[in-house]
Write a structure and sequence with these properties.
About 30% of the residues lie in helices and about 25% in strands. The protein is α/β, with parallel strands linked by helices and about 575 residues long. Helix 8 crosses helix 12, helix 9 packs antiparallel against helix 10 and helix 11 crosses helix 12.
């Protein structure tokens, strides 16, 4: 036992007092430090911000953007925290210009989520081919998903991007509107950023009235699998509605339908089945059930996608055609190639009845019999069968240009890098035909992979105008991988090649940037028409020179972000 118990107690009390005093002061400093370790700034929509890296951005709380009436613009804020944040929310005030108001309901905010991505092929020239072993590909987490969650937690030492979409009302008064974006949470003081939106005295039409021919292929089967609902049930249509409504709001023109089993040989996680039932009766007659086809088309038309119906396909990757054989009570397959008698019989019977059904529904004039990347000989044989069944059938092809069949194709979409001869394009335009361009896994850039620079999606719209195309096609709007919200990689092709949007009505950075490019296309088109009508040759020549810069050579030299930013700044001066 100590010989000096009083002295010992004194030092214990003194020690505890110092500790408590230190803790009180530390807590006070901690409260101050907490505020200083949370940074909110405006960023760039050209950047996919790394969640673990400190963002390399200027510290700015003010952002000024320009917009046409009716236009959707995207901006991105970046939240960086060195401490855990709980129940984080984002709100945007009304944007005000005197008595004029852009209501907060016109503004959508999204926390950006991260998804696994990979890379281009090792040669860097494209992204086609199988990649079953994911360990062989450099993978990382990348910002892309625009989440629908309204409240989240943000871990310490991380960056959380916030995507903001403003859809300016078409009847907004021209002028400068000011408002604020506020980030709040359970355990920190709110952070605020200032927005100034200058509404120009020009109007962009509603998406359904855009001339840009957008054709992103839909996969209803993917939605049923992901949500685990019966195919073509009410629950299935309910799950598809927010996904397909986003597509309608992007100005989509085409409904993707399938008239045979596995038209692409099951290349996606969820293969496409036939939307038309084909039965060969005991007496040899053919009957057809259009129930699913009609339900799907009517559903899509109810959302505003109603200009064209593309029916795939008479020339699949595997030349095997399904039907139900009543005499054997089994599903059987016709094995035949274009030009064979059995091929002609199978498709000739169907197309004759299909023509009758489409005319009865009032859909014949908007329907095409569609093929994808098929050779000239096979196309010529298929065209014979189609025209024999009904000479007024429209035909579409996405693939190479063949002068021999060009006149037979109402809708012709060329692979990126190919162009229509000027006289051919002029004649196609005069006769009301559709002439577009597509990208797929073959293009290293521009593209819409989950690792692609976001501005490349916008660049595509400008290139479509520069190349004198009517629009753009991509083969997969929502052919989701097994776990699309977490892993965009697939056993074939580069990550993100299979889909542009996510389940539950979640958009993506690349899809929103693609819409920007489509809007820019429309704005240029409107200005060109005005300049031509008013004889404004100087302005027309200047605009044409601006658009003509969007070549692959300039993309390689400058990069998409710089090209798009410069062009949009010039465009907004008109």
């Amino acid at each position: 036992m100590s010989k000096h118990p009083f002295k010992q107690c004194f030092f214990v009390v003194l020690f505890l007092t110092v500790i408590v005093d230190f803790q009180i002061k530390a807590d006070g400093k901690s409260s101050e430090n907490l505020q200083s370790t949370i940074q909110l700034n405006w960023g760039s929509t050209d950047v996919r911000y790394d969640s673990l890296a400190v963002p390399a951005i200027q510290k700015t709380s003010f952002l000024s953007e320009k917009t046409w009436k009716g236009e959707r613009i995207n901006i991105q804020a970046v939240l960086r925290t060195e401490t855990d944040l709980h129940e984080v929310t984002v709100s945007v005030s009304d944007l005000k210009n005197g008595q004029a108001v852009i209501p907060e309901s016109a503004v959508k905010t999204h926390f950006v989520r991260y998804v696994m991505t990979d890379e281009l092929n090792k040669d860097g020239k494209g992204a086609c081919g199988h990649r079953p072993d994911k360990s062989e590909w450099d993978s990382s987490m990348v910002a892309d998903v625009l989440d629908i969650a309204k409240k989240i937690d943000v871990a310490a030492h991380t960056t959380q991007p916030i995507w903001v979409n403003v859809w300016t009302p078409a009847d907004a008064k021209a002028g400068k509107y000011k408002g604020t974006l506020t980030v709040s949470g359970k355990d920190f003081a709110p952070r605020t950023l200032n927005i100034e939106l200058e509404v120009l005295n020009r109007t962009l039409p509603a998406p359904q009235n855009w001339k840009f021919h957008l054709d992103l292929w839909q996969n209803p089967y993917s939605v049923a699998r992901y949500h685990q609902v019966p195919l073509w049930s009410q629950a299935h249509f309910d799950a598809m509605r927010p996904v397909m409504k986003m597509l309608a709001d992007a100005g989509q023109k085409v409904i993707t339908t399938t008239i045979m089993h596995k038209p692409w040989n099951g290349q996606t996680e969820d293969f496409f089945d036939s939307m038309v039932g084909k039965t060969k009766k005991i007496d040899g007659r053919w009957t057809y059930d259009y129930t699913v086809f009609d339900q799907w088309v009517e559903f899509m038309q109810s959302l505003g996608i109603d200009k064209q119906i593309n029916c795939y396909t008479l020339i699949p990757w595997a030349l095997s055609f399904d039907y139900f054989d009543q005499s054997t009570n089994r599903v059987l397959y016709v094995q035949a190639k274009p030009g064979d008698a059995t091929y002609n019989e199978y498709w000739g019977n169907f197309l004759s009845d299909f023509s009758r059904h489409l005319r009865q529904k009032g859909w014949f004039d908007k329907t095409t019999i569609a093929m994808d990347e098929r050779g000239l000989g096979a196309m010529q044989e298929a065209i014979k069968v189609i025209k024999k069944a009904d000479s007024e059938f429209k035909i579409s092809l996405a693939g190479n240009y063949h002068a021999e069949i060009e006149k037979d194709l109402y809708d012709l979409c060329l692979a990126f890098g190919n162009q229509f001869p000027a006289d051919v394009k002029a004649e196609r335009e005069r006769t009301g035909k559709v002439s577009t361009v597509y990208t797929c896994c073959a293009e290293a850039r521009p593209n819409t992979f989950t690792f692609s620079p976001p501005a490349e999606a916008t660049w595509i719209g400008w290139h479509a105008l520069a190349g004198n195309y009517d629009g753009y096609l991509r083969w997969a709007y929502n052919s989701w991988t097994l776990d699309p919200l977490h892993d965009s990689r697939f056993r074939s092709w580069a990550a993100g090649d299979c889909y542009l949007v996510y389940p539950g009505g979640r958009s993506s950075i690349r899809f929103e940037r693609l819409i920007e490019g489509i809007q820019d296309y429309e704005k240029c088109r409107i200005l060109k028409e005005e300049f031509l009508k008013k004889g404004m040759k100087t302005e027309l020549d200047k605009l044409n020179r601006l658009v003509s810069r969007f070549t692959i050579e300039e993309l390689t030299r400058q990069g998409a972000g710089k090209m798009v930013d410069n062009a949009r700044n010039e465009l907004n001066r008109y």
